[in-house]
């Protein structure tokens, strides 16, 4: 909060929504005095805007411990109980669902396993029914839902709320998902790539200090989320970070699920590792099974996961040179065997990227682990429905 200024050019232009944004970006110790310093608003103007937010139930006030003799200041914080958002992280073989309060805390969460290749007409009714049940489980009504955040393993069309190009879940491209959710809520629905939403979750937590971050989601498929200069980079068509279909020598001639050959995914993704073990007579259905085998000491599973990290690192070395991130964060089911995967990843990244680009590079596991996609999907919609513009419109 210290040193923050609003983007408005005059006192009159600073709205209640702007004040709410400052409160939300704080740590629960935001006071009227600090808001005044950050916005140049008069004490009276600050009080009026805070009162509007309190009347709407969006902001709570509590006394802070006094740092000096006298009356303690009143700290302002977002009221986490002023509504909820729904989150749906759709995957190839598993969909994770959750309900979060306005602080982004998970109130309820569950997973739905599905057949690979299931389409939206078959899966979305189950998603909707499960979200409705989770909402009831945590004691909230449908009219308290402020929005729905969704993620998918592929490129998303934010205008139509559908996928554009996702070989991981064929049959979904071009199918709008909002209509499925209208039996639960008429609130806004947002959709983004799964790696992008995990980046949002990381940036809302303890890693907001990383202005340049590269996050990889290594699961059934491979994807990346890119933060440069503090901003999430989606690219012209939202396809930034689709590094899994980069051609690599190790995959030469090997078929990929995208229909091409030679892609990184063909040798380093979860589905490729499952295929490799099955070809050797092993009974595995998902990358999670491979991770479990590796953690139990299975030599072949351990080798495959380390090799996956090595192949991924060969491609990411170029991205590290290009972007010079401060942090490289590993998320997804492969992170269940983090030490094995990162051993191969480090070998290739540090062996192929420049010494300058890797000098201060930190390789880290995702903050939220298996909950990353749900927390990220919730963050996606929270950033929208709690934006200054949305709050001003609601008031």
From TrEMBL:
- Which SUPFAM superfamilies does this one have? Actin-like ATPase domain, Winged helix' DNA-binding domain
Pfam assignment, any one: ROK
Instruction: Classify the source by domain of life.
Output: Bacteria
- Family of this protein: Belongs to the ROK (NagC/XylR) family.
User: What's the name of the protein?
Assistant: ROK family protein
Q: Which organism is it from?
A: Tsukamurella paurometabola (strain ATCC 8368 / DSM 20162 / CCUG 35730 / CIP 100753 / JCM 10117 / KCTC 9821 / NBRC 16120 / NCIMB 702349 / NCTC 13040)
């Amino acid at each position: 909060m210290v040193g923050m200024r609003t983007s408005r050019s005059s006192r009159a232009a600073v709205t209640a929504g702007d004040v709410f944004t400052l409160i939300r970006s704080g740590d629960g110790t935001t006071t009227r005095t600090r808001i005044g310093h950050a916005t140049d608003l008069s004490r009276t103007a600050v009080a009026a805007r805070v009162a509007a937010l309190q009347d709407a139930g969006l902001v709570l006030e509590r006394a802070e411990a006094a740092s000096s003799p006298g009356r303690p200041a009143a700290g302002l914080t977002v009221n986490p109980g002023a509504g909820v958002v729904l989150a749906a992280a759709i995957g190839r073989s598993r969909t994770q669902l959750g309900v979060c309060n306005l602080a982004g805390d998970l109130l309820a969460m569950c997973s739905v396993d599905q057949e690979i290749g299931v389409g939206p007409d078959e899966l979305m009714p189950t998603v909707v029914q499960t979200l409705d049940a989770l909402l009831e489980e945590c004691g909230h009504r449908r009219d308290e839902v402020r929005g729905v955040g969704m993620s998918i393993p592929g490129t998303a069309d934010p205008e139509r709320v559908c996928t554009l190009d996702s070989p991981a879940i064929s049959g979904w491209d071009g199918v709008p998902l909002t209509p499925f959710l209208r039996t639960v809520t008429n609130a806004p629905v947002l959709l983004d790539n799964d790696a992008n939403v995990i980046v949002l979750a990381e940036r809302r937590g303890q890693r907001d200090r990383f202005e340049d971050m590269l996050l990889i989601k290594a699961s059934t498929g491979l994807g990346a989320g890119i933060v440069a200069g503090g901003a999430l980079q989606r690219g012209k068509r939202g396809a930034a970070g689709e590094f899994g279909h980069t051609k690599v020598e190790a995959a030469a001639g090997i078929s990929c699920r995208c229909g091409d050959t030679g892609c990184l995914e063909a040798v380093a993704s979860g589905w490729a590792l499952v295929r490799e073990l099955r070809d050797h007579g092993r009974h595995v259905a998902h990358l999670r099974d491979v991770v479990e085998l590796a953690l139990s000491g299975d030599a072949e599973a351990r080798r495959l996961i380390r090799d996956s990290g090595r192949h991924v690192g060969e491609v990411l070395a170029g991205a590290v040179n290009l972007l010079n991130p401060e942090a490289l964060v590993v998320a997804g089911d492969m992170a269940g065997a983090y030490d094995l995967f990162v051993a191969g990843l480090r070998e290739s990244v540090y062996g192929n990227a420049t010494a300058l680009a890797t000098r201060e590079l930190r390789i880290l596991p995702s903050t939220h682990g298996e909950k990353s996609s749900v927390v990220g999907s919730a963050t996606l919609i929270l950033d929208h429905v709690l934006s200054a513009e949305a709050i001003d419109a609601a008031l």
